[in-house]
Design a protein that fits this description.
Layout: H1 2-29, H2 33-38, H3 63-69, H4 73-96, H5 102-128, H6 133-160, H7 165-171
Helix pairs in contact: 3-6, 4-5, 4-6, 5-6
Length: 172
């Protein structure tokens, strides 16, 4: 009796998981450039970190200034969220554009992973202590990678979806 119930429970769990995966795939296939750009968090921008934010890698800020310029945890959360959205944009480009540079896509995916790790570490350190050198360094590292990823995303959009570039720049 119990074994039968466990089998039924396992089948129900698998069916629910498969239906969630199918719904996620359907949502993913129905995305547009506009819907992806609209998901970018525009309540924070890395423009304070460098003059050429979307056009060139690198920061004008020092590690000590980065925490203040990104507005602390607010900027870190925005970077974490936007990195995920930019990966979805890269995946969208890979599915819908023939001439996408595969190396650039892999770089964007790796950047997003590194940004999310650095942001998570900085937020955990911040949750357990006051702002210190380690938090400043992790924030600086995340912000530096974020500006590089944004510059590469701009490059990808210029080559494959130039019409959406102004919306992307405005959202960032």
């Amino acid at each position: 009796m119990i074994v039968t119930l466990l089998e039924i429970l396992a089948i129900v769990c698998v069916a629910i998981s498969l239906s969630h995966m199918r719904a996620a795939a359907r949502r993913k296939n129905s995305q547009t450039w506009d819907s992806l750009v609209s998901r970018l968090r525009s309540d924070w921008s890395a423009r304070e970190l460098t003059e050429h934010f979307l056009w060139r890698e690198g920061l004008d800020a020092r590690p000590e200034d980065t925490w203040r310029r990104i507005r602390g945890p607010q900027g870190l959360c925005a970077m974490f969220h936007n990195a995920g959205v930019m990966v979805e944009m890269a995946d969208f480009a890979a599915r819908n554009c023939d001439s996408v540079d595969c190396e650039l896509l892999e770089t964007l995916r790796a950047d997003a992973m590194h940004i999310r790790i650095s942001v998570s570490i900085a937020l955990l350190e911040y949750a357990f202590s006051q702002v210190n050198d380690a938090i400043s360094v992790n924030s600086y590292r995340a912000a530096s990678m974020y500006t590089g990823m944004a510059a590469r995303m701009t490059q990808l959009l210029q080559a494959n979806a130039a019409g959406i570039l102004p919306d992307f720049v405005a959202a960032m």
